[in-house]
Automatic annotation (TrEMBL):
The lineage of its organism: Bacteria, Bacillati, Bacillota, Bacilli, Bacillales. Pfam families: Mntp. It comes from the Bacteria. This is Putative manganese efflux pump MntP. It is found in: Cell membrane. GO terms for molecular function: manganese ion transmembrane transporter activity. Belongs to the MntP (TC 9.B.29) family.
Length: 185
């Protein structure tokens, strides 16, 4: 029982880290006048993408795990480290951020862009042998709530917080990648 609780806590923390980009981008988008119905739809769409993308990654990861064993686990850990480092690095870059309109195709593109990292994490978790239902529930629910929080909070605060939240998410993914590799040695 305690092993399952530990896995759920780990998955929620990972989901929180992955949802940071949805939160930070939602924070910026929330500064535009969006109706509550639109905020609700954006959150649901992002949540669904955070279910679908890790599911595809989990399936691919389980396949790789059966074929490549420990080598695949090393690749998964390295993917998390690279992804976390990339998230941290992107917060340090100075430049214009493009804002995608959260309507129609723009909403789908927005949801895909903030959930691509959950594919690689799903790949890693599939290699590691995580429970599929727990992963997609945790990722989907947490991403939805974080998106809503970002959009709603964006109506109230300045955009500087979003940059720091993405760096925090990157640091968490980086730590989990290191932890995964450390378990091998």
């Amino acid at each position: 029982m305690s092993e399952m609780v530990g896995e759920v806590v780990t998955l929620v923390i990972m989901a929180f880290a992955l949802g940071m980009d949805a939160f930070s981008v939602g924070l910026g988008m929330g500064m535009y006048e969006l109706r509550l119905k639109k905020i609700f739809n954006i959150g649901i769409t992002i949540g669904l993408f955070h279910v679908w993308m890790p599911l595809v990654g989990l399936i691919a990861g389980k396949f790789l795990s059966e074929k490549f064993g420990v080598f695949a686990t090393v690749i998964g850990g390295l993917l998390l480290i690279v992804l976390g480092a990339q998230m941290i690095w992107s917060t340090m870059k100075k430049g214009e951020e493009k804002v995608i309109s959260p309507v129609g195709f723009g909403l789908l593109l927005f949801a895909l862009s903030v959930s691509l990292d959950s594919f690689s994490v799903g790949l890693t978790l599939g290699i590691y042998g995580a429970k599929t239902i727990m992963v997609i529930l945790c990722f989907g629910i947490v991403a939805t709530v974080q998106t809503w929080a970002g959009l709603l909070l964006g109506r109230k605060v300045q955009g500087w917080l979003g940059r720091y939240s993405e760096a925090l998410g990157g640091a968490i993914l980086l730590a989990f990648g290191i932890k995964l590799l450390a378990l091998l040695w």
